[in-house]
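Obj.: predict assembly geometry.
Materials: sequence records (below).
Method: joint structure prediction, all chains together.
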Amino acid sequence: MKVPVRITVNGRLFEREVEPRLLLVHFIRVFAELTGTKVGCDTSQCGSCTVLIDGVSAKSCTTLAVQADGANVTTIEGLADGEKLHALQESFWNKHGLQCGFCTPGMILASHELLRTNASPSDDEIRHGLEGNICRCTGYQNIVRAVKDAAEATAAADK
Amino acid sequence: MFAADFEYYRAGSVAEAGQLLAAHPGAKLLAGGHSLIPLLKLRLAAPAAVIDIGRIAELRGISTDGDGLRIGALTTHAEIAASDTVKEHAAALAEAASQIGDPAVRNRGTIGGNLAHADPASDLPTVLAALGATMTVKGSGGERTIDAADFFTGMMATSLGDNDLLTAIRVPSAAGRGNAYVKFSHPASRYAVIGVAASIGIGTTGGGWMAKIKGEPKETVCTDVAVAIGGLVPKPLRCSAVEAALKDQAPSEPAFAAAAAAVSGDLGDDLLGDVFASGDYRKAVASVYVQRAIEAAAGRVG
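Observations (raw structure tokens):
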């Protein structure tokens, strides 16, 4: 059995016939050919597969593509505005918020969710907000600094 | 990981979901998918058909209903955690929902899916057992309600039948009583190694006929004590020994400690354990979490 789905990824519509068991993360990586979204633990614990579905964070390894039928999905490739990096991307770069980089797309989208719900989080709130994302290089200190920096930069830009 | 192949149907209404369930025996219902999809991927479940109820608008939302809350089965953990209505009437439920998994999991996971899955390490069943919630279920014979105490029948087992759809959860208002949920969560999965929910009222007692004759003053005591524990038992357990030990006692640290110690009588010796935390360990730690829960609940009365 194949099911037709229409999923918009980073503003581009993909209409495909998929097996219902296809995970959203594989739709993104195979059909949309965007490999920034990673499969890490594959058990919804590590957060490497985090994307936004209609602006809200979700683990795409624990979401079927058919569940995202009709939705707007944003991946790490869709955050920048042309050549201009998103504030979070800029801050992760400036504050060395990554080492190997595997967890970074998920970290940035989980941080996006945190700042959507809390524009100026404390260090503690950042750590709680990112508890669903694991960095196996253990680079958490700089990740927290990066999120804080992005929040401050966004607040300054809004003034 | 890939699930075994299945047929996929999307229900537009509760009535249509019922028809699809009747037409596809053994089908699994898909809400947010955060319990079912991991099972499908591990092939612990391999249903021939999956019925997606995730878009049924009538199953979503939080409202007040008579003397309590009505929470639609598709309401997400994030919605429950953020709801001022839930915080007012059942603070422990919002507190538990805010501690499930992580933000992305809470955005997708639903209360109905969580309850139907009935994982012993889950948080919401424990809270609903303490608050005396009832489940509204639509089956082939119409609608009925099931008390939380009868809903959970064992590890990952409920009294839901093959053609049943859990549509809503009703929670009697605990406003006026204090209630709280505390847990010791597994550091990676955030599932409850131990979770305790408590609901406590504080009132006065005349102190009995002798006190009346002597003209002794009324005493402030704990009333309406309800405590439930999860994470180390196959299904949420009401702690009747703890409840009896605390009822009619003046709220004080020694009374809370004595009541919490009584949990060993409620638990018995046949407890869940794993490589992370043995049953013996969980039992040893349980009284600490019971005490924290009843202290937190008593501290919120008013």
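Conclusions so far: The radius of gyration of chain B is 20 Å.
To do: check interface contacts against the pulldown list.
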